[in-house]
């Protein structure tokens, strides 16, 4: 069984880049995805997602910087490791098939607002999953997972 994920959030650090022995570009990053959460004081919880991209998608990811709003899609994996305290830790990562900037820049160099990529992603998410009973904030911040 595989899990497909489509999510957007902010990069928590500049992406790290590597080149494999065969010359393939790789990029790794961490993404903070805001999810609706009724139990949280501000109504949101943060989902931490690792991102691994190769080839052209690695090049696209490497152009971004800490704080940039990025949209990613691909196969999701669960990783487990032993933490410094000796306990088992786990986290999620996506092997990205798609990396898009979810923010645009206004003409004349002014920092961008939510742009066309974000609007297109939002519309795609609303078409994919039923939204009956969901609050508007949940629609804006939802992460899509498809299991097959």
Features:
148 residues; 5-stranded mixed β-barrel; alpha+beta; OB fold (Dihydrolipoamide Acetyltransferase, E2P)
Compact summary:
18% of the residues lie in helices and 46% in strands. The protein has 148 residues and is an alpha+beta fold.
Topology summary:
Elements: E1 3-11, E2 16-19, E3 25-36, E4 44-54, H1 56-62, E5 69-82, E6 88-101, H2 116-128, H3 136-141, E7 144-147
Parallel strand pairs: 4-6
Antiparallel strand pairs: 1-3, 1-5, 1-7, 2-3, 3-4, 5-6
InterPro entries: NA-bd_OB-fold, Primosome_PriB/ssb
Protein name: Single stranded DNA-binding protein
Region (Disordered): 105-137
What does this 3D model show about the protein?
Helices cover 18% and strands 46% of the residues. It is an alpha+beta fold and 148 residues long. It has one domain: Nucleic acid-binding proteins (OB fold (Dihydrolipoamide Acetyltransferase, E2P), Beta Barrel). It has a 5-stranded mixed barrel. Mean pLDDT is 79; it is low at 112-118 and 127-142. Pfam families: SSB. It comes from Klebsiella michiganensis.
């Amino acid at each position: 069984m595989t899990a497909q994920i489509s999510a957007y959030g902010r990069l928590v650090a500049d992406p790290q880049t590597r080149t494999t022995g065969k010359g393939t570009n790789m990029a790794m990053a961490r993404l903070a995805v805001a999810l609706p959460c009724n139990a949280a004081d501000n109504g949101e919880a943060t989902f931490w997602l690792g991102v691994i991209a190769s080839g052209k998608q690695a090049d696209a990811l490497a152009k971004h910087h800490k704080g940039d709003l990025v949209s990613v899609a691909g196969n999701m994996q669960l990783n487990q490791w032993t933490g410094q305290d000796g306990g088992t830790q786990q986290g999620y990562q996506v092997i990205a098939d798609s990396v898009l900037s979810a923010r645009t820049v206004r003409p004349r160099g002014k920092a961008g607002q939510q742009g066309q990529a974000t609007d297109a992603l939002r519309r795609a998410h609303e078409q994919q999953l039923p939204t009956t009973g969901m609050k508007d904030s949940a629609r804006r911040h939802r992460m899509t997972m498809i299991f097959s």
